[in-house]
Amino acid sequence: MGTETILIIxxxxxxxxxxxxxxxxxxxxxxxxxxxxxxxxxxxFLFLMAxxxxxxxxxxxxxxxxxxxRGTIAxxxxxxxxxxxxxxxxxxxxxxxGLLAFGTYAFRGIGRFGQPVISAVQEAxxxxxxxxxxxxxxxxxxxxxxxxDYRGYDTLGEATVLFAAILGALTILRVKGFxxxxxx
Amino acid sequence: MKGMTVIVKTITRWVKVFxxxxxxxxxxTGHLTPGGGFAGGVIIACSYILLTLAYGKEFALKRLGxxxxxxxxxxxxxxxxxxxxxxxxxxxxFFANFLQKxxxxxxxxxxxxxxxxxxxxxxxLKVGASLFLIFIILSILRIVLDEKGQQSMVQHWPEGKGxx
Amino acid sequence: MLYTLCFALFLVGLYCVLTKKNTVKIxxxxxxxxxxxxxFLVLLGYRHGGVAPILDRSTNPVDFAARSVDPLPQxxxxxxIxxxxxxxxxxxALCIRLYEKYGTFDxxxxxxxxx
Lengths: 184, 164, 115
Prior knowledge:
The structure holds 3 protein chains of 3 kinds.
Chain A: H1 3-23, H2 27-47, H3 51-73, H4 86-106, H5 117-120, H6 125-137, H7 142-150, H8 152-172
Helix pairs in contact in A: 1-2, 2-3, 6-7, 7-8
Chain B: H1 6-28, H2 37-55, H3 57-63, H4 66-91, H5 98-102, H6 116-140, E1 141-145, E2 151-155
Antiparallel strand pairs in B: 1-2
Helix pairs in contact in B: 1-2, 2-3, 2-6, 4-6
Chain C: H1 2-19, H2 23-44, H3 61-67, H4 71-102, H5 107-112
Helix pairs in contact in C: 1-2, 2-4
């Protein structure tokens, strides 16, 4: 079984999980299907030879499930039954199908799966990172060398974005004054 | 938020240290094996989230309060910035790996690769503290109805250990 | 074929954001789009018969440089996964605020009861 076959099976599994997550009425099953997509994605990263990403993906997906369940499902949700606008739904589906056709046509310019850009273009920076990485940085893990030495400025930007996102979430959930037992 | 049953509490008491140790291991050997600051930081946050879920938020907030967590978060970010600025000072370029130029270690050792382990520790601290802070805020919120029938959101801190 | 499937996953997430009435479902749709984009970026860098970009004591450096997969998309996606978590947690905070102010998770009700 080649890698490509395994990845196609995993992607079909993820697509099935996504369709279940979108269409089901029960919010808890929807969130658990999102977790299944995350596990499929993590196994796909393992087959694509990216072990760093597999660890990060599975840990982040567990924390995401905990946040979603803790933050929203624990409240009282009364399902609303509005009318379904069939006309708008049909327009959206037609547009998305058109986008999928356009995407299939556009991906012909990328190149086949399994032949990355670095094997075609010799001056790509990744070739230099792979050839000189250990000698210049001393790190054996080339991905860590890329994110913390060659592209360290991007990691500083990422730390800033994470800081701002957490600060935004804390500010949204702030109440004025604190209380004990329901009194302001 | 109350804790869980006795079975969950017993298993948590044994397992949480191993999860924390695993997270610290992944952060420290980020330049040798797969992992790094981000993966280790999320796993460290997971160990504290497990503690909060199993024992209830009063117990967990006594161990690691919100002010300490916010301080660790900012400390991690400042440590990263300090490492980058020292690279500017000693190496001439922002975020230069000046320790590798001065004291090059051998590969495959824990103390090699210059500034990369220090940056990994800073990132791990920052990511772990951020995620635990979000979880604290999500777990102390409560929506109550006051006398007019309006809903309002209150933060139910245990023993008044507030944020302001 | 693989790229088309990945793009289809992205479009399923986009469909969820566009047509669902529950704000939590919209956040789930954002999460699906996130997973699809990260997987697509890593798919671009794979090499047939490749090895992970981590050296061993026994690898030959020249051989490693010719056989390893691309490390640059992996570096990009590593930070993107954690940022996706941060942004989704901010979206959940918005959902909770909306629930507190309007009493419902339904988007059509929120549009009706303006303030």
